[in-house]
Amino acid sequence: MPALPTLALLVRSAALVTGALSVLAALGVVQPAFSQGPPADPAKEPVVLGVSGPLTGQYAQYGAQWQRGFDLALDQVNAAGGIQGRPLRVQFEDSQSDPKQTVAIARKFAADARIVAELGDFTSAASMAASPIYQNAGLVQFGFTNSHPDFTRSGDFIWSNALNQAEEMPVLADYAVTALGLKRIAVLFINNDWGRTSKDLFAKAAKERGAELVGAEGYLADEKDFRSALVRVRDTRPDGIVLVSYYADGAQITRQLREAGLAQPVVAAGSVYSPKFLELGGAAVDGVHTTTPFFPGDPRPVVQGFVKDYVAKYGAEPDAYSSRAYDALLLLATVIRQSGTDRTAVRDGLATVKDAPSVVYGTVRFDPQTRRVDKPLSTRLVVRNGAFALWDGAGKAAN
Amino acid sequence: MLPTSLGPWLDYTINGLVIGNIYALLAVGLALIFGVSHLINFAHGSVYMVGAYIGWLCVTQLALPLPVTFVVVAAGCGLLGVVIERVGLRPLREAPRIAPLLATIGLSVVMDQTAQLLFSPDPRAPPTQLPAWRIAVGGGSIGALDLLIAGVGVGSAALLYGFLRFTRLGWAVRATALDRDAARQCGVDVDKVNRTVFAIASALGGVSGLLVGMYYNTIDPNMGFQAGLKGIVAQLIGGVGNVPGAIAGSLLLGLIESYGIALFGTSYRNLFAFVALIVILVLRPNGLFARARRLPPEPLTGTFIAPSRPVVLPRWAVWGLAAAALALPLAVRQPYLLQTLGNAWLFALLALSLTLVAGTVGQVSLGHAGLLAIGAYASALLTLDAGVPVLLAVPLAGLVAATLGTALVYPAFRLRGHYVSIATLAVGEIVTLVILNWESLTRGPIGVTGIPPLAVAGTPLVSGQWVYWVPLVVLLALAAVQSRLLDSHLGRTLRAIREDDIAARSYGVELDRYKALAFAVAGFVAGIGGALMAHFYSYINHETFPAPVSMLALTMVILGGLGNVAGAVLGAAVLVGLPELFRAAAEYRMLIYGIVLLLLIRFRPQGLLGTV
Fold first, then answer.
1. Number of Cβ atoms within 10 Å of the Cβ of B31
2. What is the complex's ipTM, to 2 decimals?
3. Is residue B324 part of a domain?
4. Does A191 sit within 8 Å of B436, measured CB to CB?
5. Which of A89, A123, B210, B466 lies at a CB distance of 3.0 to 4.6 Å from A97, suitable for a disulfide?
6. Residue B312 and residue A10: Cα distance in Å, rounded?
7. How close A5 comes to chain B (CA, Å)?
8. All domains of chain A, ordered by start, with CATH?
9. B486: containing domain
10. Which of A58, A108, A131 sits opposite B222 (nearest CB)?
11. Cα distance from A118 to chain B (closest Cα, Å)?
C-alpha cells in the first residue's frame, strides 16, 4: 500500500507549508497596514526618507551608528517644525549590505510614493547594485559613505557627500610628510575599493611632497592577526606608518605594531576617528595622528548642537559614522525644505543647495557634474592620554 | 622582496606558531565533536562568541577575578553545549546526517543574532588582568597571554587525551565514535556520551573565545564565523576527529599563513592557506596525522543522505504552477514582490546547481558561491573588455563556469563525505581571493563597474517585470533539462555513485567522469545565474558573492529536499522570501529566520519535498 503513506506525507507537508506561510502572511500584512494608515490631512502627512543599511550581519555596527545619527537629526528637525509643519520620518530597511536585499529594498522604495529620497547603502557591492533601480525610478540615491570613485556615475539621481579621497589623501599626506617630516612611509590598507583607492592616492600625494613609499600591505577586511604583515613592514625600515583602516582594524594594527616593537609614528586616515578606536586600542594608540572633518571641539554652532545633544542622548561621543549619518539627514532636510517633496525637485535641489548646515563641510556645495561635494573641513588630531586632542605640532620626526 | 637573512624567518616562524596556537583552541573542540558525532559543528564559533561575552560580563559587570571568570565561562558554555545537544541535535538522531549539520548553522544564526540584540553589534574591549610583561624573541616579542593560550591549548589536549584513554566515560566516548550502534548494544549510554562531549567541547570553546577576545582586545557578536572556519580548516589538516592532530594542524596552518605572507604579501594569506589545505587533502585525504592503517573515518557517502519518499508533483500541477508563475506579473504589479521573486529565481539557479552535485551525486559543496562569482565575472568582463554582446556573454559565462568549476573541484573528486565539503569550501574561498588579487584581469578590490543590463534589440530589460521573467524563463528551461537528466540513465548512474561508490565502480561506472559531468552541468547552471546577477546589479566585486551565500545555497537545497529539482526552487523561494517577509520585525528578523529554519529541520529533516 504505497499510496497511503505518500498521501499522508503530502498532506502533512502541505499542512506544514500552509502553516508556515500563514504565519508569514500574518507578519507580512503588518507592513502594508502600517504604511497605508488612515487618510489624513496631506499637510500633516510625514515626509519619509528611505534608508537602506545594515542592521544585522557583518556590518551591523556601522548601521547602528547610522541609526543614532539619524535619530538625533530627526529629533532636531522635528523639534524645529519638521518640513513646513510636516514631520520628517526615516524608514530604515535592514539590508545586511547584501546586494540581493538592497535591490529588493530599492524596488520597494521606488514603488512607495511616500518616499522622497533614499540614503545608503554601506558597502559598494550592496549600494551600487541598487543604483540602476534608483536611477530608472527617478528617486535620489544619496550615498553618504560611498566613496567608490564610480559611485555617482550610474546617473543623475545618484549623489554622494562622502569624503572624496582625491581630497582627503593629500590632506593626510600633508600631515604625514610636510608636518611630521616622514620620508620613508609604509602603508597598511584594507584591501577593498575604498582602501585601495585611498592607498594609490596617498602614494601619489606623498611622492609629490618628497616622501618615498617603501611598503604597502593590503589586508583582508576580517583579518585580526597582523604580526607577520608587520614583520614585512618592519623590514622595509620605514620612518613612519600610515593606516588606511576602519577603527576596529586600525586599533588592532596599532596594538600589534607596538607589541612588535615598532616605535615609528603612526598616521591614520580619518575613518579611525571613533571612541571605539580608543577603547579597542587602549594605551597602544596613544600618539596616533589622524585627521577628521568633524571634531567636537569645533566652535561652530552646528557642531556644538550635534555633540551636546548626542552626548545627552546616548552618553557617548559621536564617531565618524554617526556624524556622517547626521550630516546627510540634515542636508536632505534642508534640500527638501527648499525644493519641496517631489523626487525630481530633490535632485534639482541638491544641485543648487548652498547654505545647508554641516558638521563635516564648511559649506556644502555639490559639483553638478560629478554630484559630489568638495572641500571638507580637516582638523589635525593626535591621541593623548586616551583622548583625541588637537595636534600642537609636537612629534616631528627627529631624523 | 624576500628577506635574505635568517632573522625575519625566525620572526615569521614564531608568528605562525603564535597564531596557530590560537587556531588550536577551537580546532581541539571541533575535533572532539567530530570524532564522536561525525558532525562539523558550525555552531562552535558561536559558542566561542558566547564565551567571550560571558567573560566580558563577569569581568566588567560583576568584577570577578580572572580565574573565577574562566570557571564561570567554562560552566556557562558547557551548559550551553548540553542545551545545544539536547534541543538542537538529539531530536535529529534518526534524521539523515545532513540535518544536524544544517541545525548547527541554524543554531549559530540564533546565537549570533541573540548576542547582537542583547549586547549591540558594537565591538567591545574586554579588560585584561594579566601582567603586561613581554619576552623579546628574535625581532618580536611574546606576552603572558601567548603563553597562557599555549598552556590552555596543550593542557586541554593533554587532559582530553588522558580522559579518552584512561577513564570509563572516555572509553565510552571512543566506543561511540567508532560504532554508535555497537556501543549502544554494549550498554553505553550514547546520549550521555554525546552530552558529555558537547559540554567539554563547548566549555573549551567558550574559554577560547574569552582568551582570544583578550588577546585581540576586542569581542563582537560576529567574531565566531571566521574563527570557526579557521578551526575547521586546522582540524582538517590534522585529520578530522584527531585531537593531538588538531593541535599540530593548527600550528601548521599558522605557519603556512605566516610564510605565505612572507613570500607573497599580506593579501595572499588566506589564498595560501586554502591552497595548502587542498594540496594536503589531495595528498593525504585523512589529514596529515591520521594513521595509515586506520579505516577511513568517513562512512560511505550514501549514508550521508537518508532515503525518503519524495513528494512527486503530478505533471499537470507542474505545468500549472509554471504557467501561474509566468502569468504572475500580468496580475500583480508590485515591483518589490516581483524583484524579490526574481531574486528567488536567480538563487533557485544556484540551488538547482547545488542540488545536482550535493543531492544527486552526494558531493556536498560548501563553496558554490564561487561558481556564481566565476559566471558573473566571466559575463561582465566578456561584455566590457571583449565587446561580446550581453545575450551571448551569458551562455558563454555558463560555459566558463562549467569548465573552471570542474577543473577547480577536480582534485577533490577522490575525496568523500565531509572532505568534499571542506575542499569545495576552500575552492570557493580561493575563487574570491583570486578575484581580489588578480587585478590585471578582475580589477581587484575596485570591482567591475558599469556592467550593461540585459537588452533585446536595444531595449534594456530593467523593469520589475523583466527582472522577474528573465530569470524565471531561464530557470524553467534549466529545471526541465535537469529533470529529464535525472530520469535518464545518467541520473540513475549519478545516484548510484551517491548510494555506494564502490558498488558503482565495480559495476563499471567511471566515477571521475560522471562527477566531472555533474559538476560541469552544475557549473553551467550556476554560471548563468551569476551572469544574470552581474547584469542586473551593474556592479560586482569580491564581496558580492561571499562565503555565507554558499551556506545559504546549501540551506535551500536541504530545505527543499536533496536532489529534488522542485525542492530546490521551493527552498530558494522560501529562504529568499522569509527575510523579506520578516522585514516588519526589523533587527529581529534574522533571529526569527534562524528559529524558523530550526523548526523546519526539526519537523521535516528530509526537506520539504523529500530527497530524490
1. 32
2. 0.85
3. no
4. yes
5. A123
6. 9
7. 9
8. 47-163+329-368 (3.40.50.2300), 165-292+379-390 (3.40.50.2300)
9. 334-546
10. A58
11. 15
